Amino acid sequence: MKKFQRVYDLQERVLPGWDDRQICTAEETRRALTLKTVRAQGISRIAWMPYYYYLAKTGLAELVKGLARDGALLEIEVEGWPEPAYVHPDRLELLDRAAAGALEPTLTSLLSPFDPLIMDRTRTRQVFGFDFTIECYLPEAKRRYGYYALPVLYCGALVGRLAAKAHRAKGIFEVKGLWLEPGFELKGALAEELGAALQRCANWHDTPEVVGMVALS
User: Across residues 162-186, what is the average pLDDT?
Assistant: First the structure.
């Protein structure tokens, strides 16, 4: 069983050029993390920004609007959204390509329930139409998908959940269930890409033998 471990070292060996006088102020740090949040999210609403780096909500709207006035963020309108959204200038080219239909998502992966893509449950519902709950915090009788189901990302869409268990002593990765969203079936490209993603996940856990019944519902 893998365990977490803390490793300590002397500051001068980890950061040989560091000087405590280089520490940013709290406001500088908040400004930098807000910009990094919007850059990572592509298009962001103020309500989505606190969760990426766990920023305080108080005063965030005023900070974001100030960044837009300074040109550090770009304020845009999105059809169907009641308030402005924001884009980092570094993402303007990608925004133009997306608007022109020139972006084609290709990644298929099993996500951690704590992945930044789905960490904000409200954003996940609003962007992907995917309602996700980490059920390990629920009593067993109230779970629908198991203790630790993994969201399935398929080419830009969240298409389902996969429940699995790694038996590391035996090198076995057990698939306990798969639940796809309406409109998706386990066949063709989805079946092929998901199978490859599942094997990558199993290999990462040092459990390369994938076994178990896949239950669809």
Answer: 94
